[in-house]
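User: Here's a chain of 318 residues. Predict its fold as tokens.
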Amino acid sequence: MTADAQQGSDHADAGGEANPDPGVEGEASGSHRLVVLTGMSGAGKSSALNALEDLGYEAVDNLPLALLDALVAGGTLDRPLAVGIDVRTRDFTVSRLLSSLTRLRERPGLDVALVFLDCDDEVLRQRFTETRRRHPLALDRPLSDGLALERTRMAPLRACADVLVDTAHATLGDLKRRLEDQLGLGTVSDGLQIAVVSFGFRHGLPREADLVFDARFLRNPHYVTDLRPLTGRDPAVGAHVEGDPDFGRFWSALVALLDVVLPRQGGEGKSYLTVAVGCTGGRHRSVLLAERLGVWLRDQGRRVSVRHRDLEAGTTAL
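Assistant: Prediction complete.
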């Protein structure tokens, strides 16, 4: 089931109000959390709202922009709040939403995160075809034209999003885990939240990646019969890849670069960063490096999550 199998439905009733996560209710730091969910129609906004509600957020879909400021006025939020806003929202314009976010971020004690949900147009076309729903900007034009128009309109929001989530290969469980990881387990983050993602180039780049590193030049365990069915989590694969004569220099250069980049990213006020490591199929080399990066980042005192996109998707490496 895709993350947007029910993209056209209203916010679903999960059988009563979700119990707030004790880790988010009350916000121990004294701050309140507001997550604004937006993105391409069909990319999974309703599913993402359901996921955040399960994580203890109060969820509101298609809130008129004129009411957004009033909803959080006075900092009286009892629980973290997630609000879904897109091209269907009454009085929606990109500039108006950006202006609202600027005002809200100036409020003391309010932590605001903009999450943009996206996937490629072919997946979106398939979802609209399967659900037989009309795209909101394609009521009098072909679906492809509506998608193109929406992508152009939403580009400024995508460019300034704090978190970018590619839902093309995501199940509902995947979507919940990604939001939980990238939003810091529902807590207000003091510092940079880093997501490390392994992937296979043959399956496409992760759309949410901020930094991409290519490991295809290293020894490929796929061509060793005993190693082929294993993954980068297995010690034998690690020993094989790390035995490459250039592995040591590459690793040293990689962490030295991150030593420079990460403090600057945090210093620029960025709250979320996705580091992607790719090999051919996303099973061996990239998985090993992502795991090693996760350990190294934790040792540096960083807040980090590690995800193996194509390993978890069950794809095979070549």
